[in-house]
Amino acid sequence: MEKTTFDQNTFAVADMEAARRIILTPTAGQSTDERWEIETPYMAGLLGDQLAIRPGQTIVDYGCGIGRLSKALIERFDCFVLGVDQSEDMRALAPAYVKNAAFSAVSRRMFHQIGLRGFRADAAFSVWVLQHCPQPDEDIGLIAAALPPQAPITVVNMKRRALSTREKGWYDDGFDLRSRLAGQFREVAAGPLPDEIVTPRVAEATFWATYRR
User: Fold this and answer.
1) What is the pLDDT of residue 2?
2) Annotation: CATH topology of 30-212
């Protein structure tokens, strides 16, 4: 891999609107607002089906941002969601967006610590996140450590990496995410995202997959 430096400032945001633009960047054919309105309920339904979410369960939203999907899942399934995000700014904005006592957001470091102390979730998901993580093996390991045997995780991701770097901007470092996930989990379902939800161009470049410990 070429020498690159992760640009932490990419995910530093001043307000909710800036956070929304980072979480769902405009694409050819869809603005951030359109993506938010169209994609969010679809993703909530996909995650609900794949994770078989039931009332009272605790779900990990890894890379929660301001809690876009946490909010949707809590409202639809009456579950609890623990959000995890490396961005202090996103975590600070999340409670005001979700507006529900069934949600809380923590740092990666805190997530690691509570995992060491025995925290286990009923399921987990990560949407448009692992493609950007500078140390994805660590992130996959953190999620795996928080799930008991047979617990599911659903991942929605680009097929290629998009690491934010100071030297090269958005950069594909060649990390094979799906093979690494297969090393920690057993894939039980997978598929493309619908063209009508994410546009044909995005659908071609992305995938969703569900795994079990």
Assistant:
1) 61
2) Rossmann fold (3.40.50)
